Amino acid sequence: MAPLDARRSVPPKQLGEPGPDHPTLLRLLESAVRVPDHGKRVPFRFLSFRGDARHAFGERLAARSRERDPEASEAVIEKDRTRFSHAPLVVAVIGRFGPDEKIPESERFSTASCVCFALLQAAQALGYGAIWLTGWLAYDPEVARWLGLADDERVVGYIHIGTPKLDAPERERPDPRELLTQWPPA
């Protein structure tokens, strides 16, 4: 249980080179896809950002941020410009949620969410740091268009992966004893 209990989110600014190379990314994804998937729908796919693509995407985000809020401060615009510049690899987990007579969208969303978490765990298992983020860019229709998302797709998470520059601090976790109750049959 030690690796599971040691999992931490590493802020993007604390992620640097080296990041996973392509074969290592594929290995991470092999583990990440081993999630519950009712009906074997595979309601997810991946989109990766590396190198200059991260910076180009950041420039688009900065411009879009200014479009969305012409009064945005320069600090807000700069945050959007550099969002993808810190970690050497960002993987967008794209959920696919078209009509399905048997498997509700909520279950398919849960599967895609599990992929995000499994990717975090896989990255940490290989010595990388990672964090799962969304933010406005996960919900913006213009960003969805740039990403080539179909009408039935949406971003479930942006997973930033790299080598931690420092040990991520532990944060307070809930006590499961306070969250657990037992259902009484009578």
Automatic annotation (TrEMBL):
Q: What is its EC number?
A: 1.-.-.-
Bias-annotated ranges (Basic and acidic residues)? 167-178
Q: Where is this region: Disordered?
A: 1-22, 166-186
Q: Which domain of life is it from?
A: Bacteria
Q: Which residues form the Nitroreductase domain?
A: 6-162
Q: Identify the keywords attached in UniProt to this record, alphabetized.
A: Flavoprotein, FMN, NAD, NADP, Oxidoreductase
**InterPro entries, per this entry?**
NAD(P)H_nitroreductase, Nitroreductase, Nitroreductase-like, YdjA-like
| Enzyme class, broadest EC rank | oxidoreductase
Q: Which prosthetic group or cofactor does it need? A: FMN
Q: Which family does it belong to?
A: Belongs to the nitroreductase family.
| Protein name, per record | Putative NAD(P)H nitroreductase
